[in-house]
Design a protein that fits this description.
48% of the residues lie in helices and 16% in strands.
C-alpha cells in the first residue's frame, strides 16, 4: 500500500510540473478539471500497461519529427465506444500539453453508430455534443468549450475516406478487431492496446458506472502517453541547447 501511494504521489508531482511547463490548454471548467485530475492518476497504471503506452508515445515522438501532422488511427470492431473515446482523449491530451500537430482518427472493422451511452459518459466528463447528419447517419460535432479544436465524430470503417491512408499508425483498442484485422493497409506500424468493452453492461443497473470507468481509464492512459511525448520533446530540446 505504501509503495502504491508513493508511486502515485511521485507521478502526480511530475505530471503537475509538466503541465505547468506545457502551459496547459484551457477547456471548459468541467473538462479542464477532469483533465487535470487524469494526470494525477498515472500511478494507477500497471507496469505492463506502462510499457505499451511508452511504445506508442515513442512512435508519436518519432512521427512528430517526420510529418507535419501526426495521424494515429484508433480501431475497434464497431467504432462505437472505445475507439471514439480514445480519439477524443488523445486529441484533448495533446492540446492540454500544447502539442497541436497530433490529429487522431478512429474507425471500425464495420460501421454502426456512436453509442449513446459512450456519448453520455463523455458528456459527463465535460465534452459538448451537437447532433448533425452525416450522409444520412447520426454524427456529432464535439467541442471542448472555451478553446480547443472541434471534431466531427461518427461511426465508420477504418478505411473510410475521412481517415488517413498513409503516414499513420494504427492502435487496436479491442481484442476482436486485433484478431480479425491483422493487417491495416497503409499503416507504418500497428499497436495492440485493448480495453474491455462496456457494452456488456448495457441495459444493466451499473451501465453508467462501467462507461464512466472506461472513459476514465482511457483518459488516464491517453494523458500518460502525451505526458511522455512532452517529456521526450523537452529532453531533446534541452540536449540541443547544450
Amino acid at each position: 500500500m505504501k509503495k502504491i501511494f508513493k508511486k502515485t504521489v511521485i507521478f502526480s508531482l511530475i505530471t503537475v510540473l509538466m503541465c505547468e511547463v506545457a502551459g496547459a490548454q484551457k477547456f471548459n471548467k468541467k473538462l479542464q478539471k477532469y483533465s487535470e485530475s487524469s494526470v494525477t492518476e498515472f500511478g494507477l497504471i500497471s507496469s505492463d500497461r506502462i510499457q505499451l503506452l511508452n511504445e506508442i508515445a515513442g512512435q508519436l515522438t518519432v512521427d512528430l519529427k517526420k510529418y507535419k501532422e501526426v495521424q494515429p488511427l484508433f480501431i475497434c470492431t464497431h467504432n462505437s465506444r472505445r475507439s471514439h473515446m480514445a480519439q477524443l482523449w488523445l486529441q484533448t491530451a495533446s492540446e492540454f500539453f500544447g502539442i497541436s500537430s497530433i490529429k487522431p482518427y478512429s474507425g471500425g472493422t464495420e460501421a454502426t453508430v456512436f453509442n449513446k451511452n459512450a456519448v453520455e459518459a463523455l458528456k459527463r466528463a465535460g465534452f459538448t455534443f451537437s447532433q448533425v447528419d452525416v450522409e444520412g447517419q447520426l454524427g456529432f460535432i464535439v467541442s471542448k468549450g472555451e478553446s480547443g479544436e472541434e471534431r466531427l465524430m461518427f461511426s465508420k470503417k477504418f478505411d473510410d475516406k475521412v481517415n488517413p491512408k498513409k503516414n499513420f499508425f494504427a492502435i487496436m483498442v479491442c481484442s476482436e478487431a486485433d484478431e480479425s484485422c491483422p493487417l491495416i493497409p497503409g499503416a507504418d506500424k500497428r499497436f495492440s492496446l485493448p480495453y474491455d468493452d462496456p457494452r456488456y453492461f448495457d441495459n444493466t443497473p451499473s451501465y453508467e458506472i462501467k462507461y464512466d470507468e472506461t472513459c476514465r481509464l482511457i483518459s488516464r492512459e491517453m494523458f500518460y502517453i502525451m505526458s511522455e511525448v512532452k517529456k521526450q520533446l523537452n529532453t531533446e530540446t534541452e540536449t540541443r541547447k547544450r
